[in-house]
Amino acid sequence: MGSLFSIAMGVALVGLFVLSVRFRKNIVALVHGIKLPRSILFLLVGIPYIIVEEQVNCGPEWCYRILVPPTLLPLMFFLLFLLIGVKLFRTKTVLKPMLIFSILGIMFELIFGSAHVAFQGLITRAPLGFILLSIWVGFSYRFVSFIPLAVLLDN
Known about the structure:
This protein is mainly alpha-helical and 155 residues long. It has helices at 2-22, 24-32, 38-56, 72-88, 95-111, 116-125, 127-153.
């Protein structure tokens, strides 16, 4: 039952991402109605996306028991580094920073993430599982960064 629920939550996350892509201009216009600097909006908009993504990929010690995940602050710092990189390199489109953020996210989870030992173990024991999990982790980081980047870059 647990794995079926996890699959359903994953499908829901993909559905939310598709809706975010489809309605990004509406979401961005709504967020831009708030009179704050785009950098602040970028970080604020990231919070609900992080909460949703972390509830889908939650750790067993807090899974569905708390609203605000313990990973919120570290992921907000990760978004802050993304913001600094986008500003530093004067990026104009969402695609490149989102892709780089996803790759860095996969590397972070592989080296430091809460399941890094199991993740690393897949490399030799189940390479296909490692590839699929890497794709999912990269997608999760794309989910977290897409709308904040669209708000920041207005595209």
